[in-house]
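Dear colleagues,

I hope this message finds you well. In preparation for our joint manuscript, I am sending the Hydroxymethylglutaryl-CoA synthase (Penicillium hetheringtonii) sequence together with its predicted structure, so that both groups work from identical material. I would be grateful if you could confirm receipt.
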Amino acid sequence: MAARPQNIGIKAIEVYFPTQCVDQVELEKYDGVAAGKYTIGLGQTKMSFCDDREDIYSMSLTTLANMMKKYDIDPKSIGRLEVGTETLLDKSKSVKSVLMQLFAPPTAIPTLRVSIPSTPATVVPTLINWLESSAWDGRDAVVVCGDIALYAAGAARPTGGAGCVAMLIGPDAPIVFEPGLRASYITHAYDFYKPDLTSEYPVVDGHFSLRCYTEAVDACYKAYGAREQTLKAVQNGTNGATEPKTGLDRFDYILYHAPTCKLVQKSYARMLYNDFLANPSDPAFAELRDIDYTASLTDKAVEKTFMALTKKRFAERVQPGLQVATLCGNMYTATVYAGLASLLSHVEFSPNEPKRIGLFSYGSGLASSMFSANIVGDVSHIVKNLDLKNRLDSRTVLSPEAYDAMCKLREHAHLQKNFKPAGKTETLQSGTYYLTEVDDMFRRNYEVKA
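The corresponding structure tokens are as follows:
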């Protein structure tokens, strides 16, 4: 019987994004919108995209294969695999089953069947639960999260992106999840959904979607605070009555699911607003004290006040985790963990000075979760393997016209059989999986770029 695991957390991270992107400044000009609408209004700088050579299967294969190679991970050391995605290629066959090619010969890896999309709010906590449970078999776990965020031409298109993250999770990790500290908010909402399987494009209720995200931030932050108070009370042997309330400053850094970087900035300010609600006696907040909760979700005075109050802290504690989000766009399920890669690549961490990070994840429909971790060990090997800045800088910036053309390639490829992709393979980096054909039974075949 394996000893109970300690210090469960992240031991390795790999991030994948396509080799081409579009500049949001040029996209503003191409779309004929006001300068700054995408770059300032949304907080986006560039947007990654792929043509018909890449899909969620190929991106997941590339990301996981790269992580296993860079960290010299023995496939036999993996006891569980989870996949999170909102990008569906098949209504029955799971992404996980495609990834099993990397574990040949076939092996028994216990997992929930991932034949429907899993949100980042549930996929990592599921692995943590397994590692903490009697079902744990002594091996590490792997999670792969990725998506291609693509929208029909119009207002939502600049909020797209593409990317994938793989992580190795297990005991004795340098980034340790705080046990028992987790809060979730799940409810039924038509904020973002993909009911039309004949199209890659989602149905999005923009304003309602923003409101849902804000409600999820509020609910998770409040529930996380309550859970933290409960745990502290138990540790201190009190009923919690004498325990002072903790606020936004409990975290050295916070990472968010990032539909846009501007929404993240507003969400960080929103957390301070929740601290105010818990202790509204400060006279600086007098004019905000009587605003009811529903009105506060869209109230510009609330938003402006707390964004101003958090401006400096946002730059120090949140901005370092937004490099991938602003330069690649939305990766849906991968976004918050790509944020972790950004943070590690931007801030120098030392085992002698542990840092606490909060993580807020969100999935459409909706499911959200907030949890936390401490960076307590040496992460220099992770930073070196990520090589994030060099990889982002080496991408090819294509024109908005080229981006539109690639969107049309994907439209044409969707649901096709007896199909060979038209995208060029010369632009792919070595080690990238890519689609070669879809046969007459919709079976998809891939090769690896030499």
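For the figure legend, we might mention the following. The radius of gyration is 22 Å. The chain has a mean pLDDT of 91.

With kind regards,
E.M.
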